[in-house]
Amino acid sequence: MFTHLDKSGRGQMVDISQKEISQREALAKGSIKLKYETIKAIKDEKIKKGDVLAIAQVAAIQAVKNTSSIIPMAHPLLLNGINVDFYFEGENLFCEVLVKCQGKTGVEMEALTGVSAGLLTVYDMCKALDKSMVIEDIYLVSKKGGKSGDYKREGL
């Protein structure tokens, strides 16, 4: 049974009032494929809009904090920590977002939303230089806490 549907089949926010507070953590990851010239311009801080990675980091943090305003059934959360990391491998720029809280519901959506906004910001800032960029493979790497327990993506 889908927990986000009422008796009429309409969407609703899950009632978490009876759940126990526990330490929650989620790590999400994604990448954007870039041309060599774009990677060099980012690294050399030659993008006219500014420091791409610094601005994308702030965008990712803002997105994590505002997930419940973007994802309709996500609960507003009191977050304990957000860590955003960008790194290059070959023609890809990777974004990883780790989110922590003590709460009654998980932070997977917050981590995934942070990665998405971080990568979209890279796209926005570099689109004048490279319109062929491709955002790829945004996924949950791991989660800790909650009723369903820990999860770690296989094959990574």
Automatic annotation (TrEMBL):
The keyword Glycoprotein does not apply. It is an enzyme of class 4 (lyase). The keyword NAD does not apply. Residues 13-146 form the Molybdopterin cofactor biosynthesis C (MoaC) domain. One of its GO terms (molecular function) is GTP 3',8'-cyclase activity. Coiled coil: none annotated. Gene3D superfamilies: Molybdopterin cofactor biosynthesis C (MoaC) domain (3.30.70.640). Its EC number is 4.6.1.17. Pathway: Cofactor biosynthesis; molybdopterin biosynthesis. It comes from the Bacteria. Keywords: Lyase, Molybdenum cofactor biosynthesis. GO terms for biological process: Mo-molybdopterin cofactor biosynthetic process. InterPro entries: MoaC (IPR023045), MoaC_sf (IPR036522), MoCo_biosynth_MoaA/MoaC (IPR050105), Mopterin_CF_biosynth-C_dom (IPR002820). This is Cyclic pyranopterin monophosphate synthase MoaC. The gene is moaC.
